[in-house]
Every structure is written in structure tokens, then in C-alpha cells.
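Hi R.,

Here are the chain sequences for the assembly we discussed:
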Amino acid sequence: DGGITQSPKYLFRKEGQNVTLSCEQNLNHDAMYWYRQDPGQGLRLIYYSQIVNDFQKGDIAEGYSVSREKKESFPLTVTSAQKNPTAFYLCASSRSAWEGGGELFFGEGSRLTVL
Amino acid sequence: QKEVEQNSGPLSVPEGAIASLNCTYSDRGSQSFFWYRQYSGKSPELIMFIYSNGDKEDGRFTAQLNKASQYVSLLIRDSQPSDSATYLCAVNGRDDKIIFGKGTRLHILP
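And here is the predicted structure of the full complex:
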């Protein structure tokens, strides 16, 4: 089945530790995204990538880092510099806009709790 | 700062009535517009997308776009209890940067 796989689904970490969230897609999509969602809020864009080996900052990139070494993979690292990392993290992918894309396919999300 | 604005609600609508959800956006260069439904604790799922001015219908759902007014709406006809969820408006600019509004919580009253 085609889709997006995020792992882990739940993650607990101590304050000051870096955490890496995995996101893998087999939809052959060029574009991939990371969003953060806090309780009762919408989705805020952290980073996005339109093509392998390239990515752009979203609206709340501070304290986060990403890589895009393969088309299928777009891991997100939550660093110790992120002041309020506890949140629900969503990864998504889509075809590029020039291919008529824009519809986002989401993974099931990763819920990070920093103790 | 490019923004997408939605009324947070909650919007309460009787079962069987029409629910009307609204969204405004600030970037005039935006090219495509999306409505997602999100149940509590779950990922968003696509309901409708629209690229051109006017109306687009799909079953009980109608999306409306007015680029001159920078306004997009979603109408849900014959509202059902299962429609109770948060509805997220999303806008795609020229650079594939997809921005979401904060969402509108919809409650369908039995």
C-alpha cells in the first residue's frame, strides 16, 4: 500500500535531548513537509522540501533541522534549542505544484512529550 | 508574513442543515486552495480542493473561491453528526509552501 509512515508514534524525552522523527513515503512525491500542531491549534509549517538535497524553512524553523538525502525520506530533528518541543508532529508529501499537485498526504503523526 | 485566517468556532449547526465555513488569505499569488477535515487526535484528510474562481461541488460539499476578495469557503449540505470535526483551510503559494489556518471546530447537533 502506498502511503506515508511516521515513527515513532509516541516519544518521551528529557529536556535538553535531541530527538529525530522519521518520515518515509512510497508515493513517489517530490515535495515533503513537516508541520507542528499544538492543542486546539492549526498546523504550523516547520520545514519543507521540493526536491532531493534541497529544503526551505517554514514559519517556525528555529530549533529544528531536516535533511533530504533520498526522495523517500525526510527526517526531522528536534534539537535542544527548541524551547517548547512538546507537540504533535505531522509529516506530509505531495506532487509538486508544477505537476498539478498541492494535495497533502499525511502520516499518522508523532506525539512528542518532553519531560 | 503570509497568513490564512479562519474563525475558530465552535460553529454549531443542526443536523440536516447547511454548514458554512469561511477562510481568507493574504497572499494574492496563491494558486490552489484546500479544505481538510481533522478528527480529534487524527491526521487531516482532504475534503475538497479548488483552483479557479467559482464553485466546485462534490457530493454534499461545495467549495467556493473568490480570488479578488481573497476568500474561500466550504459549504456542507445535509449536515450529519459524523461531520463534527475541525475543518482546516490550506493555501498553496507559488513556491509549494502550503500554509494552514488555525481551523474551525464544527459541531453538528442531533
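The radius of gyration of chain B is 13 Å. The mean pLDDT of chain B is 93.

Let me know if anything looks off.

Best,
T.
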